[in-house]
Amino acid sequence: MERVLLIKYGEMTTKKGNRNFFVNTLYNNIKEKLKNFDVKIIKEISRMYIEFHDEDLERIKEQINHIFGIHTYHIAYIINSNMEEIISKSIEIMHKYEGKTFKVETKRSDKKFLIESMQVSRQVGGAILKNCIDMKVDVKHPEVLLNIEIRPYKSFIYTKTYYGLGGYPVGTQAKGMLMLSGGIDSPVAGFLTLKRGVRLDAVYFEAIPHTSLEARNKVIELTRILARYTDKINLHIVPFTEVQEEIYKTIDPAYCITIMRRMMYRITQLLAKKHNALILVNGESIGQVASQTLTSMSVINQVTNMPVIRPVACLDKLEIISIAQKIGSYETSILPYEDCCTLFVPKHPVINPTLEKCLKYEKNFDYKPMLEKAVEKTFTIKVEEQKEEKFKEFL
Ligand code: ATP
Ligand code: MG
Predict the structure, then answer these.
(1) Which of 12, 88, 330, 361 is most buried, by CB atoms within 10 Å?
(2) Pocket of ligand 1 contains residue 149 by CB under 6 Å
(3) DSSP three-state, residue 115
(4) What value, to the nearest 5°, has the Cα angle with vertex 119 and ends 138 and 139?
(5) What are the tens digits of pLDDT across the range 131-164?
(6) Final residue of a domain: which of 163, 188, 205?
(7) Residue 297 lies inside a defined structural domain of this protein
(8) Signed CA dihedral, 111, 115, 116, 118: sign only
């Protein structure tokens, strides 16, 4: 193997005490993502590198671009740590860039290598000027930056830096329960939560026959898109029809959405406890709709004492859309199937609900057994990132 994919961790290297745990989690996540490739992953405390077959590179990069905890990566030549090899490989690489300005930067973490970094850069730079046509050194704004990293027994040489997703490796935090509707906001909320290393289960409330199987499939597809950024996500599908119909039968239309959301939170909390999730996560954004004013959020939130994380709370819709487009969920989110929320929206939902009224209305019906029944009838689908047929080509 002449080239390797060299991975730098970034943010998590600041977590001193936990470093091994973070690195091991990242290692396992990369191993899982690349399980269909013939690769060797070598783990060091400050970096990792992957030996691969050239023909797999583009598909491996595609996988790497979906793994949290990777700050940057490079496609690097790996050679022995001696000046002769370093110089000849550098010249070979820089032939590709003839006519451009360049700079050589050397990092030497092997202090047994006796030539200092500056000296290495200078010698390599001199050799490039002598052997490559029409090249000039520019230390301030070079068109090509040649990086040399000298480590015990081996060195890495590369020119390009690719940016990974950053964040923390998924699995370095406990689990969260994501409320996943078919909309634009909640998949983005899920993505941003995974980015902090949180594992996720998802919960979807459906109201068949008022909502369709297409709407359910859309949520499964969104879960699959999210699962690309972790390994698999358990999607809990809650039959919500009975609860919802009861709400609309017994409660003042202005309060229907508020009460419905209080019921959703209650069920999500029950499911979170059942599946060992420590937080609830949703796509609420301050002020977006009547049920997301601070007054509404506060009244709705009172049904749970678990932390509710709202990653997109302070983002504009356009900012959320831009993330949705980047992560690949937008096109699916805008498919036109009705969600159980949009279906029953009253003409004038209350903007500033009060807790007293909620409690009064909730006395109108015996909701507790209904919620328990909904949890009991919830069924779970294990959603994996790739449909099987996509992998067939290299099985
Ligand atoms: P999204 O917020 O995902 O774009 P939306 O704006 O239609 O969809 P809202 O009605 O604003 O959703 O609901 C706010 C949040 O409540 C959603 O982001 C989601 O986390 C949760 N939620 C709403 N409906 C459902 C549902 N049917 N199943 C699970 N969670 C839901
Ligand atoms: Mg929304």
Answers:
(1) 12
(2) no
(3) coil
(4) 10
(5) 999 999 999 999 999 999 999 889 999 999 999 9
(6) 163
(7) yes
(8) negative
